[in-house]
Design brief:
Blueprint lengths: L1 E7 L3 H16 L9 E4 L2 H7 L2 H12 L5 H8 L3 H13 L4 E2 L5 E2 L2 E8 L4
Parallel strand pairs: 1-2, 1-5
Antiparallel strand pairs: 3-4
Helix pairs in contact: 3-5, 4-5
Length: 119
């Protein structure tokens, strides 16, 4: 099962401190467990990227990989241009994989979120 963490409202300094701590541990020869994590500065940024249509697209690709954008748009009953935009945005986050042959898939089984209210 492939999981990815999404955090909302995390201070950039705190995220940078985590990276610095991991770097120091690795330099000291201590093992550092990697984790896939996407950070959003606020709720609006998360909602702008993970829309209901994109969630539907991810679910579809998890169940049924497609050979390209057009077949995906057809399967979803959506406009090709909009589906392309969604695939590009989700691929940039690592949520959609694009094969060299144009195929599309998603290996994400679970998105775990932390949303800080008083950040």
């Amino acid at each position: 099962m492939t999981k990815i963490e999404v955090e909302v409202g995390r201070d950039l300094r705190a995220a940078a401190a985590d990276v610095a701590d991991a770097w120091k541990m690795a330099e000291a020869g201590n093992p550092v467990a990697g984790r896939d994590r996407i950070l959003f500065r606020d709720w609006s940024a998360l909602c702008a990227v993970l829309t209901p249509k994109r969630y539907e697209l991810l679910r579809h690709l998890r169940r049924t990989p497609e050979t390209g954008i057009r077949p995906l748009a057809r399967a979803l009953g959506r406009d090709v241009k909009r589906v392309h935009e969604d695939v590009v945005a989700l691929a940039e986050l690592g949520l959609v994989a694009r094969g060299e042959d144009g195929s599309l898939s998603s290996e994400i089984d679970e998105i775990i979120s932390t949303i800080r209210i008083a950040a």
